[in-house]
Amino acid sequence: SFPSGKKITVVFVIGGPGSGKGTQCAKIVSHFGFTHLSAGDLLREEVKSDTEQGTMIKNLMHEGKLVPSEIIVRLLLKAMLASGNDKFLIDGFPRNEENREAYEKIIKIEPEFVLLIDCSREEMERRILHRNQGRDDDNMETIRRRFEVFQQSTLPVIQHYEKMGKLRRVL
Which segment of the chain is annotated as a signal peptide (predicted)? Predict the structure, then answer.
């Protein structure tokens, strides 16, 4: 865990697939010196590591299913500690209430605020199909499924942070 007494700043960046989370994060990092951590990128790196956990993650992602929250949170914590920084932009997380609860239980650092990147489904689909850093799972069926999962599971998270006064919307 982090040294006590040290202020750690965490900002969550939430938005549907293709909403521009990565693009916005890159701008914030270059201006404010945050370490950008993408839950999705950490999972994809773990898949490449060819471990038993990596294989399990690969199968879940291929089926469009979510990876257990505790695995994601532990990967995030490991990356946060390894970075040596005290300011983190965590992109694509928390995806659902289970993610949020696991984060609160394991990492225990309340986010400074939550950036919600609001974007229409049509715009997200257009961006994903035309982006150049394509992913293996960037096909129309998977994109629609990812968008539906995002809408169903992330809405309660958005509402939670909105009630706390921590939500900032970017259109």
Answer: none
SS3 58: helix
Give me the CATH number covering residue 91: 3.40.50.300
Beta-bridge partner residues of 36: 89
How many folded domains does the chain comprise?
1
Q: At 17, list the tokens.
A: 């697939």
Q: Per-residue b/e over 23-43, b at no fewer than 16 CB within 10 Å?
A: ebbeebeeeeebbbbbbbebb
pTM for this one? 0.83
The token duo for 115 is: 């950036």
Domain range spanning residue 163? 9-170
Q: What is the pLDDT of residue 168?
A: 96
